[in-house]
């Protein structure tokens, strides 16, 4: 190291110290520069040893991510392909929107037939399957069809409009195509809702008596309505006689010896005879 003033000139390879500027210049010598260059070029610093655990884990994770992305891209491409194929198929074969359509138990060809000219759908009596006679309902249905009662195909198509509640539910369960003609429907319907009706006999009429406090005219009407359901062929005069025999004593005594053979006569006598009316009022 050499200390000099500001006027002195020093070689670049020397160290100098300026008292005026208070600076210290340090410049390495040529040998030092050569050794530094050799160390930097010929013997570069080696990186620190790597940790195998820190290398493998990120690599495996990247591989899994890449494989997952490739699989997802493949599935997405396949889905897009299928959608394009479906769209192309729809364009080739456009379909009308399907509505709920229940197939009837008869041939669907009947649905294609138009109604007869000037035909007006009648107002049908309804059968619910809980009460009433199936045979009576068929008779009412045929009567409602009027001039078209002989059109079996039309009757077959219109019959469901006369059903309600439980009976209509039964109708909807009939297999499609199971009914060929109108007669088949009548047979199925009557077989399903056949009811063993109680038959009114003369024995039933003999136990149909006027009760205490019952109006005479009301009793006669009640007895006559029951006698109408009597399937045996009894003469009306015989039934009128049973009706009089079943009256209370005070009424029976006034009507027993009268020549009455019809219910209309019996009702007229009962309403016109003042003695009968007075007895009826006393009983009430």
Automatic annotation (TrEMBL):
Pfam families: Retrotrans_gag
InterPro entries with a match to the protein in the record: Retrotrans_gag_dom (IPR005162)
Domain Retrotransposon gag span(s) in chain numbering: 159-237
Protein name: Retrotransposon gag domain-containing protein
Taxonomic lineage from the root: Eukaryota, Viridiplantae, Streptophyta, Embryophyta, Tracheophyta
């Amino acid at each position: 190291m050499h200390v000099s003033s500001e006027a002195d000139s020093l070689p670049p390879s020397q160290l100098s110290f300026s008292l005026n500027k208070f600076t210290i210049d340090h410049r390495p010598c040529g040998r030092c520069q050569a050794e530094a260059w050799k160390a930097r070029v010929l013997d570069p610093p080696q990186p620190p040893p790597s940790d195998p655990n820190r290398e493998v884990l990120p690599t495996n994770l990247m591989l899994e991510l890449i494989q997952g992305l490739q699989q997802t891209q493949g599935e997405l491409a396949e889905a897009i392909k299928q959608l394009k194929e479906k769209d192309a198929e729809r364009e080739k074969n456009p379909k009308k929107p399907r509505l709920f359509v229940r197939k009837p138990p008869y041939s669907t060809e009947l649905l294609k037939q138009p109604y007869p000219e000037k035909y007006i759908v009648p107002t049908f009596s309804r059968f619910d399957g809980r009460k009433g006679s199936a045979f009576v309902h068929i008779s009412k249905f045929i009567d409602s069809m009027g001039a078209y009662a002989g059109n079996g195909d039309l009757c077959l198509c219109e019959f469901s409009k006369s059903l309600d509640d439980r009976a209509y539910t039964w109708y909807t369960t009939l297999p499609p195509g199971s009914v060929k003609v109108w007669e088949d429907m009548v047979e199925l319907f009557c077989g399903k809702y056949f009811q063993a009706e109680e038959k009114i006999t003369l024995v039933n009429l003999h136990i149909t008596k006027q009760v205490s406090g019952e109006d005479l005219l009301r009793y006669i009407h009640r007895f006559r309505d029951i006698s109408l359901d009597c399937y045996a062929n009894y003469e009306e005069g015989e039934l009128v006689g049973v009706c009089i025999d079943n009256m209370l004593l005070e009424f029976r005594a006034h009507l027993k010896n009268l020549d009455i053979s019809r219910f209309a006569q019996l009702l007229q006598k009962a309403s016109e005879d003042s003695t009968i009316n007075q007895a009826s009022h006393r009983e009430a």
